[in-house]
Amino acid sequence: MKPTPNVDTFQQRKDTFLRRGRFRWPYIKYTSYLAQPNTLASAGFSFSPAKDAPDNVQCFHCGFELTGWEPSDDPFAEHHAHQPTCTYAQLHCQARRAQEGDKVEWVGWPPNSTQKLVEMREDVEMRLATFECWPHKGREEWNVTAEKLSQAGFYYTPEWPGDDTATCAFCGYALAEWEPEDEPNAEHARRAPDCLFFKLDLDVVPQVQPSPQPRRVSVHASRQSENDSDSSKRPRLSTNTHEPVEEEGRDEEAPLSEAEDDVDDENTPADIPVGQVPPPLTSPTEMNVDDEVNTASQIDTQATTQVDGTAEESEGMEEEAWELSEDEEHMTVEEFIRACCDQKIASLEASASQMVSAFMLRAESTRARICDMTW
């Protein structure tokens, strides 16, 4: 089976697990499962369910499929264990692990992998293969080419269509918003001087421990801020530390039989974080990744409360069953939201019309009674 189309980016893969109704990830309510939308998408998987495999997932790069997930199954470890020749699994999955709460942790490379890392460092072609959809390909005035990025230790890890995020396979550092005059190797060395990519040139490789949350940094913004402070940078969102809002009310255990029932019967609307990836910041100031994600979560929660009235009403709406028509199942998120809004507006207009008619009848009745009293 060919890989599902249009799932080359992190957000596109994650959205496949957050569909409504029977096409939603069956274990999304069970916190005991490490295989959740965020960790699965980061590990390269998209959701591809089948009648006999309700929890089937597929790698966007190699097309390999996995099913029969257990609570302790780590998407990163499983991907590399079952498909060690997959380029994405080699570059991205070996140094990452899934954590409870749908979080991704950078664990780094073990000290005994020096020879393997040396071989990976020299394998520029493997990293270059990931830049097939590089958005700046073919621009003659651009110094930031796929070849130079791969030679500097980077591979392509877009968060959304058109994104130019590139991540180092050796330290997990991610850079985005490249400018034409940028020099990938120089930018890498300046921001991550202790990266194993550079230390491998030494006779003795130090046991460098990467930060637990490698940052995703805007190249252009951080350069503009150097006039004020050499250490000033503008992190946006780490590709390795996505921390979505945890869903409340999840059960702790979920046997596969229960998951199959959820796939067939559950039609609850998915809490799709449309604004998961924040826009670029307007000032080159340092921001903690956790604070940024928490702020986005708070804004999303406040918006939901304002629309629905109270938190209780919002939770009640999430539990309502959604019976989607065939046309609705093929809608995009934006089209479905627009259809829901139109339906709600029509309902409000009908209700308002009924209220106006009732008031007019009452006014006529009152007017008639007043006339009778005056006569």
TrEMBL record:
Sequence ranges of Acidic residues compositional bias:
245-268
Q: Report the Gene3D superfamilies cross-referenced here.
A: Inhibitor Of Apoptosis Protein (2mihbC-IAP-1), Chain A (1.10.1170.10)
Basic and acidic residues compositional bias: what residue ranges?
223-233
Residue ranges annotated as compositionally biased, kind Low complexity, are 207-216
**Which keywords, in A-to-Z order, does the entry hold?**
Metal-binding, Zinc
Region (Disordered): which ranges?
207-288
Q: Which domain of life is it from?
A: Eukaryota
GO molecular function: any one? metal ion binding
Classification via Pfam families: BIR
- SUPFAM superfamilies, per this entry? Inhibitor of apoptosis (IAP) repeat (SSF57924)
**InterPro entries of this UniProt entry?**
Baculoviral_IAP, BIR_rpt
Xref: SMART domains = BIR
Q: What is this protein called?
A: BIR-domain-containing protein
Q: What is the lineage of its organism?
A: Eukaryota, Fungi, Fungi incertae sedis, Zoopagomycota, Kickxellomycotina
